[in-house]
Amino acid sequence: MVILGIGAGLVVWKSKVGGHSTGSFSSISKEEVELLLADVAKTNPMVLKRFAEDPEMKKQQLDNLKQLLAFASQAQKEGLANDPTNKQELENIRSEVMAVNYDKHTNEGKGPMPPFGFITEDRVNQFWGSSEGSGGFMDTIGLGGPDPNVQFQKFLDTKVALLKQGNPQMADREISEEEKTQARDFFAKIEIYQKEYEDKAAAGELPKEFQDKVNLQVKLQQAQFLARLYSEKLAEKVKVTDEEVAQYIAEHPELDSTEKRTKAQEILTRAKSGEDFAKLADEFSEDPGNMGPDGKKQGGIYKDVTKGKMVPAFEQAALALEPGQVAPELVETDYGFHIVKLERKGEGKDAAGQPAETYDVRHILITTSFKDPEMGREMPVKAYVRQKLETEKEKQVIDEIVASNNIQVPEDFDVPEVSEDQIREMLKKQQQQMPQQMQTMPEGEGEGEGGTAGTEAPAQPEPKK
After folding, report:
1. Secondary structure of the chain: what % helix, strand, coil (to 5)?
2. What are the two backbone dihedrals, phi and then psi, of residue 374, each rounded to the nearest 5 degrees?
């Protein structure tokens, strides 16, 4: 999937959600970029200092911003913003951004309080028309507007639909009454503060710079929502097929694995002739998982493997055997060539404690890894080629979308100067927050050597992703 986003070094709008009907995403002005940077100056002056001093970082962040707006524009062109659920969420985004920012603006300096904490229960009841002697929120403000109960149901239906779209495990989940009550309270408070914001803005009672900042947040959050939708739509377009991987390898002799296949075939012949499989594994296997925690080789054994854990080709070959048999042919995966011997089939439990088919298997791996010249790390040849081709496809798609939407992002703008005092103040705040974060850290998290993390040897082939 094409991964998009404005880098953390440029856009640091935290804890804000947003939307209403959308405008144009074809450009961002010099003034808007300077608004973004002014916000970074307040929240992370060290990042802003690096932004000002590092031309490559500056270019990357502006490119990210351009890509974000291009994807949002393309989503509009292709009608994604007109889908009823998406259209409602864009409206939700606008309402929420306005309400959250107005809450902070109007209650600044009044002391700590959770979001919307200054809205009383009486005001919420008034919104729903349930206070004594009240004709309801819409009547109170002199409007015969839409029924807030109908508006809330649209709000809730949209949030639930998007939640289920983004997480298939939630598809059959029903919203509880408690969750619905919390959502209803949240919705009422958004509507109350959004109305106040709009009334005061119309009356000229809110600073122009504050309104500009809110409008920019609405624009960027709506753009992020639409860009995500469009990038999901493009996921299939940037996939690389097995045929494309094979063709690339055939065209690059340095990636050819013929010699390794020959070596693996010779070992398979010896295993089929009855040689001690465990000894062959310890002598020839290039699987790092064959090394136990005690530093001794394991004879290629993997015990109590739950069905479904290993990559399909490996598992299918293993489970097609009877205990004691060696697979008659080499098993090829992205990791290399495997010689497989099944030791046991049985029943056990999966990670959730449920009954599951398990098996013990030995294997010898002759890896077909390739050292990535850019990253400097070993990777399976097919995985390396697939990643390389996908990256190239993604870049081509992004470049085409940016070009076709003619996104205008200024390169000439003022970057606020960062003082040493600002950096010291930020570091001081971080040090003050650190003890609280460590107190709430889950047990075992952050352990290095001697902790529980990383004690299990990585298995080859790895579990399915």
Report:
1. 55, 10, 35
2. -90, -45
Site of tokens 């109170």 = 140
For residue 148, the surrounding DSSP H or E stretch is: helix 148-166
What mean pLDDT is predicted for residues 232-249?
88
**pLDDT surpassing 50 at residue 100:** yes
**How many Cβ atoms are within 10 Å of 440's Cβ, its own excluded?**
7
The whole-number pLDDT of residue 145 equals: 61
Q: Are 190 and 99 in contact (CB under 8 A)?
A: yes
For 29, the 3-state DSSP assignment is coil
Distance CA 132, CA 138 (A): 15
H helices, E strands: number in the chain: 15, 6
For the segment 337-351, the average pLDDT, to the nearest whole number, is 90
| Model pLDDT, residue 438 | 52
Kindly list the distances between the CA atom of residue 120 and the CA atoms of 117, 124, 128, 132, 232, in Å, as whole numbers in the listed order: 8, 7, 13, 15, 41
Picking from 81-90, 282-291, 399-408, 434-443, which range would have the lowest pLDDT averaged per residue?
A: 434-443
CA distance 450 to 444: 10
Judge contact between 126 and 138, C-beta under 8 A. Answer: no
SS3 at position 250:
helix
| Statement: residue 218 has pLDDT above 60 | yes
Question: Can you tell me the distance from the alpha carbon of 90 to that of 81, in angstroms, rounded to the nearest whole number?
Answer: 8
Query: What is the Cα–Cα distance from 322 to 299, expressed in whole angstroms?
Result: 19
Q: How far apart are CA 287 and CA 335, in angstroms?
A: 9
State both tokens at 6.
Answer: 């404005």
CA distance 87 to 85: 5
For residue 279, what are the CA distances in angstroms to 276, 347, 459? 5, 28, 19
Question: Is 340 in contact with 332 (CB distance < 8 Å)?
Answer: no
Could you give the CA distance from residue 13 to residue 215 in angstroms, rounded to a whole number?
A: 13
Averaged pLDDT, 159-177:
87
Q: What is the distance between the alpha carbons of residues 127 and 319, in angstroms, rounded to a whole number?
A: 63
**Strand pairing class (378-380; 301-306):** unpaired
CA distance 205 to 105: 12
Strand ranges for 310-450 from DSSP E: 331-333, 336-349, 355-367, 369-371, 378-380
Contacts of 234 (CB under 8 A, 6+ apart): 1, 2, 397
Longest dimension (CA), the chain: 93
Q: In angstroms, what CA-CA distances link 272 with 3, 257, 298?
A: 47, 22, 20
